[in-house]
C-alpha cells in the first residue's frame, strides 16, 4: 500500500438524579490506576499511527509503511474515545523488560522493493512522524531525516532511521516517562531511484536491505506515578506554542468587565428615567396606556405576541440549553483531573456520553416552552429538537469519514464503532429527548405575560439603519467573540494542533464571561429595539448574540491560513467541516442564553410599570 496524501427551564428532579448517577459512573470509568511491574516483567510497546507532522488529523496505521512487523498482527482493545481519536494500537516486535537495559538489539532484517523505498521517501519528505504507546505513555519520533542545503548546486538528502534509542524513566514499580532518540545515529540514505540506494546494508536486484535495531535504557525518577503527566507536558517533541500570555488574558478580562459595567450602568440609568416618566397617575387600565405615549411602553400589548416558527425557535432554545449543560459538565470533569495526557480519548468518550444523557435537557426545555406559547404539534417539536444538531453532525461526519476511508486514514471509524454510536443515539439520546419532551409538556403551565396581547398587530414604525437585524448581529456577535478571542487561539491550538490544554480554571472563567457578555449585550440590544416601538424581539434576541458562531467560523478560516501549516484534502475537509459544527454549537448555546436573558428583562420592565 502506498502512502496516500489527500492533499433553560427547571429540570425535574428525576432527570438530575439520573444524570448524577451516570456522572459518577463516568468518574469511575475514567479513574486511572497505576500498573505495577517487577524486575524483568515484559512492558508491551504498542505501535499506533503515522502521519504528516503538520496535519494532526491525517493519520494512518503504522503498519501501512514498510517496517518491521510480526507475522500476525495483534491489535489492542481500544476504548471508544481512543477509536474516535484515530488510535489503532497493535503489538510490536520490540521486547522491553522492566529495568533491563538493551544495547543495539536486532529488531528485523528488512528487504525493501523499489516501490517500498519510494513509499518511505514520500513519507519522509512529507515529514511523517510515528506514535508508539508504552504503558499509556505516547512516544513520538520521525520516520526519517531530510536535509536541504545549498542553492547551486542544490542538495536534497533523504534518510531512514533504522535504529531507535528508548529512554524510559521509572519510580519503584511504575513507568513514569518514555521517549525515543536518534542521537549519534546515522540514517540510511534513500537516494533518488527507488532501490538504487547506496549506504544500506545490502543493495542488489533493485532492492535495498536494511537492519532495524534498538536500544533500551532505564533511568530512575523521583516523580511519583500520580504526577507523571507533568513529565509528559514538559517534553518538547512538538513545539510549545501554548505560552500563556497572562497580560493578554488580563487585558481581555478588564475590557469585558468595563463593557459589562458600562451596559449595566447605562441601562439602569435609562430605565430609571423611563420608569419615572411612565409611572404617573393613570386613569385607564392596561389597554389605555398607549394613548399619547411613545417608546417601549406603548407596545406593551404587542411585546408578548408569539413569534412565527415557534417549533424551530423552541428547538434551538432546547438544543442550546443542552450544549450549555454539556459544556459545563466537560469543564467540571476537566477540573476534577479526568482528562490528563495519559487517558487517550477520555474527553471524546465523555462528550459522547454526556451528549446522549443531556438529550433530556433539550427535550424538556424545548417542549415546555413550546407548550407555553400555545404550540400544538408537540410531537413534531420533539423530532425537530432531536435532529436539529444530530442531522448536520451526521451529514458532516459522513463526508469527512468517507474521505478518511477513501484515503486509508485511521480517523475513519470502523463499522462496529459507527453502530455503537448510532445505537447510543437511537437507544439513549432519542428516547431521553422524548421523555424530556413529555415531562416538559406536562409541566409547562402558562406563559405568565404581565400584559394582554391585542388580537390585531400594531404597525411597526420605519426603523433607522442601525436598528436593522444585520447591524444587531454584527454588534451582538463581535463583542462576545472579542471576550474569548485570546483563549480561542489556545483552544484551536489544542484541538487542531498537538498541545495538551490544562488551563481549565481559566477556561471556566472565560466561559462564564462569554455567557455574561452575551446576556448583557442581548438585553441592551433588546431595549434599543423596543425603544423604537419594534416588538419583534423573539428571533432578534436569538440571532443577535447567536451570530458569535459566524465570527468563530471566520476566525477558523484565519487560523487555517495564517496560524497553521495544515494542507491536503483529508485535513482541510475535517477542519472546515467540524469548524462549521463548532460555530453551530456556539450559535445555539449563546442564542439560548441571550433569549432567556431578554425574556427575563422584558418581563421585569413591564411588570414594574404601574398598570392599575
From TrEMBL:
It is a multi-pass membrane protein. The keyword Transcription regulation does not apply. It is found in: Cytoplasmic vesicle, Autophagosome membrane. One of its GO terms (cellular component) is autophagosome membrane. Keywords: Membrane, Signal, Transmembrane, Transmembrane helix. It comes from the Eukaryota. The chain crosses the membrane at residues 246-268, 312-339, 345-366, 378-400, 412-438, 470-492, 504-530, 537-560, 580-606. Its main location: membrane. Residues 1-36 form the signal peptide. Pfam families: EMP70 (PF02990). GO terms for biological process: protein localization to membrane. Plays an essential role in autophagy. Belongs to the nonaspanin (TM9SF) (TC 9.A.2) family. This is Transmembrane 9 superfamily member.
Amino acid at each position: 500500500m502506498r502512502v496516500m496524501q489527500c492533499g433553560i427551564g427547571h429540570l425535574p428532579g428525576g432527570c438530575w438524579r439520573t444524570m448524577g448517577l451516570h456522572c459518577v459512573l463516568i468518574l469511575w470509568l475514567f479513574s486511572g490506576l497505576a500498573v505495577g511491574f517487577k524486575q524483568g516483567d515484559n512492558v508491551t510497546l504498542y505501535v499506533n499511527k503515522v502521519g504528516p507532522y503538520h496535519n494532526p488529523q491525517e493519520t494512518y496505521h503504522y503498519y501501512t509503511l514498510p517496517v518491521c512487523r510480526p507475522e500476525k498482527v495483534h491489535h489492542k482493545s481500544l476504548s471508544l474515545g481512543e477509536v474516535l481519536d484515530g488510535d489503532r494500537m497493535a503489538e510490536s516486535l520490540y521486547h522491553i523488560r522492566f529495568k533491563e537495559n538493551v544495547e543495539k538489539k536486532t529488531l528485523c532484517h528488512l528487504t525493501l522493493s523499489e516501490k517500498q523505498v519510494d513509499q518511505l521517501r514520500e513519507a519522509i519528505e512529507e515529514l511523517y512522524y510515528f506514535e508508539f504507546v508504552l504503558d499509556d505513555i505516547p512516544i513520538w519520533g520521525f520516520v526519517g531525516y531530510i536535509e536541504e542545503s545549498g542553492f547551486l548546486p542544490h542538495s536534497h538528502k533523504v534518510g531512514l532511521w533504522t535504529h531507535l534509542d528508548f529512554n524510559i524513566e521509572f519510580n519503584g514499580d511504575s513507568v513514569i516517562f518514555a521517549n525515543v532518540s536518534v542521537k549519534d545515529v546515522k540514517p540510511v540514505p534513500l537516494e533518488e531511484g527507488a532501490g538504487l540506494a547506496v549506504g544500506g546494508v545490502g543493495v542488489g536486484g533493485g532492492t535495498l536491505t536494511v537492519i532495524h535495531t534498538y536500544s533500551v535504557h532505564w533511568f530512575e525518577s523521583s516523580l511519583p506515578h500520580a504526577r507523571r503527566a507533568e513529565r509528559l507536558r514538559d517534553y518538547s517533541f512538538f513545539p510549545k506554542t501554548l505560552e500563556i500570555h497572562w497580560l493578554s488574558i488580563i487585558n481581555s478580562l478588564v475590557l469585558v468587565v468595563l463593557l459589562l459595567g458600562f451596559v449595566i450602568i447605562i441601562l439602569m440609568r435609562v430605565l430609571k428615567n423611563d420608569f419615572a416618566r411612565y409611572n404617573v397617575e393613570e386613569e385607564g387600565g392596561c389597554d389605555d396606556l398607549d394613548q399619547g405615549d411613545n417608546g417601549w411602553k406603548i407596545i406593551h400589548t404587542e411585546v408578548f405576541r408569539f413569534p412565527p416558527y415557534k417549533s424551530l425557535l423552541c428547538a434551538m432554545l432546547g438544543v442550546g440549553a443542552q450544549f450549555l449543560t454539556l459544556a459545563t459538565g466537560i469543564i467540571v470533569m476537566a477540573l476534577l483531573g479526568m482528562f490528563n495526557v495519559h487517558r487517550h480519548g477520555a474527553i471524546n468518550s465523555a462528550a459522547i456520553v454526556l451528549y446522549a444523557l443531556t438529550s433530556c435537557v433539550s427535550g424538556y426545555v424545548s417542549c415546555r416552552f413550546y407548550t407555553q406559547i400555545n404550540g400544538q404539534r408537540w410531537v413534531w417539536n420533539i423530532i425537530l429538537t432531536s435532529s436539529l444538531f444530530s442531522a448536520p453532525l451526521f451529514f458532516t461526519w459522513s463526508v469527512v469519514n468517507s474521505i478518511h476511508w477513501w484515503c486509508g486514514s485511521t480517523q475513519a471509524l470502523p463499522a462496529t464503532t459507527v453502530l455503537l454510536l448510532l445505537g447510543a443515539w437511537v437507544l439513549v439520546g432519542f428516547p431521553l429527548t422524548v421523555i424530556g419532551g413529555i415531562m416538559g409538556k406536562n409541566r409547562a403551565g402558562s406563559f405568565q405575560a404581565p400584559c394582554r396581547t391585542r388580537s390585531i398587530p400594531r404597525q411597526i414604525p420605519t426603523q433607522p439603519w442601525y436598528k436593522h437585524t444585520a447591524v444587531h448581529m454584527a454588534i451582538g456577535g463581535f463583542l462576545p467573540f472579542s471576550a474569548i478571542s485570546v483563549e480561542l487561539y489556545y483552544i484551536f491550538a489544542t484541538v487542531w494542533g498537538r498541545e495538551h490544554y490544562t488551563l481549565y480554571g481559566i477556561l471556566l472563567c472565560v466561559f462564564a464571561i462569554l455567557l455574561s457578555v452575551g446576556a448583557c449585550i442581548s438585553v441592551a440590544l433588546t431595549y434599543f429595539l423596543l425603544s423604537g416601538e419594534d416588538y419583534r424581539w423573539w428571533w432578534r434576541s436569538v440571532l443577535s448574540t447567536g451570530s458569535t458562531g459566524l465570527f468563530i467560523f471566520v476566525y477558523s478560516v484565519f487560523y487555517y491560513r495564517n496560524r497553521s501549516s495544515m494542507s491536503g484534502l483529508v485535513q482541510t475537509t475535517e477542519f472546515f467541516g467540524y469548524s462549521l459544527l463548532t460555530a453551530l454549537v456556539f450559535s445555539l448555546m449563546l442564542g439560548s442564553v441571550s433569549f432567556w436573558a431578554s425574556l427575563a428583562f422584558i418581563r421585569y420592565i413591564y411588570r414594574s410599570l404601574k398598570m392599575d
